[in-house]
Design a protein that fits this description.
Rossmann fold, tRNA(Ile)-lysidine synthase activity, 341 residues, alpha/beta, elongated, four-stranded antiparallel β-sheet, nucleotide-binding
């Protein structure tokens, strides 16, 4: 008899991602001669990440991959260090190696959820670099994706915000570090996989705390949508994320190609040529230019770009537009000048 369907589903998802990781590595002959690649799982001890850790521990050795784990102690709750130590023990029991707990200090920028996320990813990046990991697996599920799409919709910041989380992502130089094998698996399947494997799980009290926006969406917003629209809402939102991502990627590529054509010989943006571009492409060109001038991407919202866009489409002699990061945009003699003050 084969494994329970929930266990089979999580293992298949991880197996596919591990094959992709191996494909991304160097020539197979070089790979065989080198130290086996290391893949880490980011594990909070919750059902999603424990299911992911168990699947990685099962699948990685069959592909000649070393499997390790990292848990992040955010220090936001009493006894968080003890919980982190328990998660380390659980990952060790799965025969993951190396296994580490990393304590972080959570700042205040962007609110508690964003600050915790920033601290977590910074710690995961550091650990992956230090340990030489080929990839880090994250346990985000289809339900998490649906929540992310709704949060993006509430921000009203365009199609990119509706594209949710990418299956593969990363920072500069590490564009394919993070992998999300469970984006097509629902949260209940991950929890069932833990139950049938007798894996203990920890339920983070923050996930039911109404002080957090995502928690309210999870326990109030999505259930209300399902009641009104039917049980297919989560799957439909996840599908919307993928379609939106495909569209946004295409528009981003178009904007990257168009940018060179709207600059003069001195590299300045020409307003007439910008005006001729489709609005979706023009705004992406403007956003790229503003970020290149030093405006933090995370602080740049649709309303900022709309103000800059009006210098092109609604020119009335208005003055400079102040943007995050002490960047200003100003129209001068048919050119758009974007610089840091």
């Amino acid at each position: 008899m084969g494994p329970h369907p929930a266990v089979a589903a999580i293992r298949l998802a991880v197996r596919r991602v591990l094959h992709d990781v191996l494909t991304d590595l160097t020539d197979p002959a070089d790979r065989a001669a080198a130290t086996p690649p290391l893949v880490l799982v980011a594990c909070s001890g919750g059902a999603d990440s424990m299911a992911l850790a168990s699947a990685l521990a099962f699948e990685a050795p069959k592909l000649g991959i070393r499997a390790g784990g990292i848990t992040i102690d955010h220090g936001l709750q009493p006894g968080s260090d003890l919980r982190a130590a328990e998660v380390v023990n659980r990952m060790t029991a799965l025969r993951l190696d190396p296994v580490e707990s990393v304590a972080v200090r959570v700042g205040r920028d962007g609110g508690p959820e964003a600050a915790a996320r920033d601290a977590r990813y910074a710690a995961l990046d550091e650990a992956a670099d230090r340990l030489g990991a080929a990839a880090v697996l994250l346990g985000h599920t289809r339900d998490d994706q649906a929540e992310t799409v709704l949060l993006g919709l509430a921000r009203g910041s365009g199609i990119r915000s509706l594209s949710g989380m990418a299956e593969v992502s990363g920072g500069p130089g590490r564009t394919r570090r993070y992998r999300r094998p469970f984006l097509h698996i629902d949260r209940q399947t991950a929890r069932k996989a833990c139950m049938v494997q007798s894996l203990p799980v920890w339920d983070d009290p923050h996930n039911i705390d109404p002080a957090y926006t995502r928690s309210r969406l999870r326990h109030e917003g999505l259930p209300a949508l399902e009641k009104a629209l039917g049980k297919g809402v989560v799957e439909a939102l996840a599908r919307t994320a993928q379609l939106s991502r495909d569209d946004a990627d295409a528009l981003d590529a178009w904007a990257a190609d168009a940018e060179a054509g709207v600059r003069d010989a001195d590299g300045r943006l020409e307003c007439a040529k910008l005006y001729a571009l489709p609005p979706a492409v023009r705004r992406r060109v403007l956003r790229r230019a503003v970020v290149a001038a030093g405006s933090p991407a995370g602080s740049l919202f649709a309303r900022h770009i709309e103000e800059v866009d009006r210098l092109i489409t609604g020119w009335r002699g208005q003055g400079a537009i102040n943007l995050p990061g002490r960047v200003e945009a100003q129209r001068q003699g048919g050119r758009l000048v974007i610089r840091q003050g």
